[in-house]
Amino acid sequence: MGTHANAHIVWDWNGTLFHDNDAIIGATNAAFAELGLAPITLEQYRTLYCVPVPKFYERLLGRLPTDTEWELMDGVFHRYYAEHRVRCALTEGAEELLLGWRSAGHSQSLLSMYGHEELVPLVRGFGIEAHFLRVDGRTGPSGGSKAEHMVRHLEALAGVVAPERTVVIGDAADDAVAARHVGARAVLYSGGSHSRQSLEHVGVPVVDTLADAVAEAWRMAA
After folding, report:
1. pLDDT tier at 3 (50, 70, 90 boundaries)?
2. Residues of the chain with pLDDT > 90: what percent?
3. Per-residue model confidence (pLDDT) at position 5
4. Which of 48-62, 120-134, 165-179 has the weakest average pLDDT?
5. What are the DSSP E strand ranges found in 12-106?
6. What does DSSP assign to residue 6?
7. Is-contact 186 160, C-beta < 8 A?
8. Helix, strand, coil share of the chain (percent; to 5)
9. SS3 call for 8
10. What pTM value is reported for the model?
11. Are 137 and 118 in contact (CB under 8 A)?
12. In the chain, pLDDT over 70 holds for what percent of residues?
């Protein structure tokens, strides 16, 4: 499935295909509580969130967290998230869009900054793994950018996927940065970690539904 003539989508997971906003904000506030920070709302999170994640914490602390603080907050975040992600579901319409894109003869893959060992069984549990040429999660420390992971992801698909026919669909400015880094394009979805207002400054198309994202991806890659 897939040749250089075909359009390819690289999907993001958290906040894009996987609607986990509630687990994310709960885990964030659990991490903040470890440093005595007041909880924030989802709206505040979507306005302030940025990558690398320590810079997000800097916006709230007024300084970068120390290495010890970062390790503490990161550990709490991931423990809380792992406990509460089970209540989250795929974004509305996601499964149908994955099936439709694949049935049309196009290819797609999944690249997430969620840990690889946790990501793969989660994707498999939703019964959607077969739609993707590859499913790659983060390897190494958390908190960084997706750009270098995107390089490795597309290198693994070399000969099947061409960067110039590839569109990254994600919910964060970092998805657009990663796409630009490899010569691909990006469409950003406003229902995840960033507000529409913050995404509109990135310089790529911003949409409010995944269906619109797929339509835009086809237009861009055609």
Report:
1. very low
2. 86
3. 52
4. 48-62
5. 18-19, 89-90
6. S
7. no
8. 50, 15, 35
9. strand
10. 0.92
11. yes
12. 98
Instruction: Check pLDDT > 80 for residue 222.
Output: no
The answer to whether 108 touches 8, Cβ cutoff 8 Å, is yes
Return the SS3 of 127: coil
Cβ(122)–Cβ(25) below 8 Å: no
Distance of CA 164 to the CA centre of its chain: 20
Q: Could you give phi then psi for residue 192, rounded to 5 degrees?
A: -110, -120
Give the integer Cα–Cα distance in Å for 50 and 69: 18
Angle between helices 210-221 and 94-103 (to 10 degrees): 20
Overall residue count recorded for the chain in this entry: 222
Amino acid (one-letter) located at 26: G
Query: What counts of helices (H) and strands (E) characterise the chain?
Result: 10, 8
Strand partners, 109: 10
Residues 28-56 have a mean pLDDT of 91
Structure tokens belonging to residue 178 = 């990663």
